[in-house]
């Protein structure tokens, strides 16, 4: 599969794509509305950041208990149920009488449900396209995410000027319901990829198997840590620029779109494996300018440039798929998704705490420095691993 045209000629890809677009729009508009609502009620950068990225914190619980269902549940039924669960939860978040502790309880439940979604969704993508088409297909989904975030954050910011955050949450709930309907009507029923019943024990066993390989461990850490720390920077947009956060998010999404187009379509396959570390370096470096408390235009430019580096995840996911058996592809991708989102939630909490103790600009700078440090450490560990593998191969020969 060599072109985007080939992708959209593939049966089921288009409805799968459109249902995902509705869900991404729902997440974007709902997240911005919820962060704005919580910041308006509490005035806390920490609570605002955690409200937007809090579902990710709960992903670690789901990844240790529910993730075996990614390959052991019928994909269409699972994805439809997840979208409906988010529609219901977002409707509850819009309730005027819901206290702050209730908001975070719902966020926790959303995270548990979402921990299953990534594995089901991306495992199904490998079935619709096969592994050979996965990187090109995933790049399209990442571009979709970027475009829908640009549109969603811009629309969400505009809606918040004329509508209340609670009304915007109801719009988000309607989009989740639309995604559920599109999934149910547009996809065919498929059997689970693996036999057996989902269980916590099976989840633990498969997680341990995936984690037992050092190359896979380093790949997972590279997918989780630098990315998550930079999302900690993004979680402070609302407190850094309360009336222009939508513009910052939209510029970041534009940069992510550019990075995914470049890596997924323009970069030759022979070059891609060498781009992970440079892209992860780009992901954090522009945020160092926040040490100077830049004005909005410069801050937006930094966000856009940095987000080009999110293209590193495509390179890393391609490597993960080469290291993983087909029958574990859903679980492996679900572990990637859950671990990445969990780290994003943890980083949002850390960034919010730092901002409360200092300022949003200082916290953004600190998170960017931490991401650069982790990227350097993982690159060094990867070189050592490759050197050991080469030495072992020479001894065997």
Explain the overall architecture:
This protein has helices at residues 4-9, 13-42, 45-57, 59-65, 69-72, 75-93, 100-129, 134-162, 165-186, 200-211, 214-234, 237-240, 245-266, 276-284, 296-307, 312-322, 329-357, 360-396. The chain is an all-alpha fold and 397 residues long. The two termini are 36 Å apart. α2 (13-42) runs antiparallel to α9 (165-186).
Topology:
Blueprint: H1 4-9, H2 13-42, H3 45-57, H4 59-65, H5 69-72, H6 75-93, H7 100-129, H8 134-162, H9 165-186, H10 200-211, H11 214-234, H12 237-240, H13 245-266, H14 276-284, H15 296-307, H16 312-322, H17 329-357, H18 360-396
Helix pairs in contact: 2-3, 2-8, 2-9, 3-7, 3-17, 4-7, 4-17, 6-7, 6-9, 7-17, 8-13, 8-16, 11-16, 11-17, 11-18, 13-15, 14-16, 14-18, 17-18
Keywords:
mainly alpha
Short description:
This protein has 397 residues and is mainly alpha-helical. The protein has helices at 4-9, 13-42, 45-57, 59-65, 69-72, 75-93, 100-129, 134-162, 165-186, 200-211, 214-234, 237-240, 245-266, 276-284, 296-307, 312-322, 329-357, 360-396. The radius of gyration is 20 Å and the shape is globular.
Query: Which class of secondary structure composition applies to the elements?
Result: mainly alpha
Provide the residue-averaged pLDDT.
86
* Rounded radius of gyration (Å): 20 Å
Distance between the termini: 36 Å
Low-confidence stretches: none
Order of helices and strands: HHHHHHHHHHHHHHHHHH
Question: Helicity, in percent?
Answer: over 70%
- The number of helical segments is 18
Cα shape: globular
Give the oligomer, counting copies of the same chain as homo and different chains as hetero: single chain
Total beta strands: 0
Largest sheet: none
Strand content: under 5%
